[in-house]
Amino acid sequence: xxxxxxxxKYSKLNYFxxxxxxxxxxxLAQGSGTGFDDNVVDNxxxxxINNYIPILFITAIAFGFLVFRKKINNQSTN
Length: 78
What we know:
Layout: H1 3-28, H2 53-77
């Protein structure tokens, strides 16, 4: 493929991403408050995530080990 066509494609993508970022700035900016000015007591139960961190850590290590072992086995058969 010609280098000019590739560069034109990437420049169009960059212009689109820049325009998209400019378009979303007013959406992400918060105005003068949330519009929810009632005095409400929130009694929602607390959901701790600290109990699940060791389980997620062990799962990540096991998944990494399996993927690494599969990659090693594929390289040794080739």
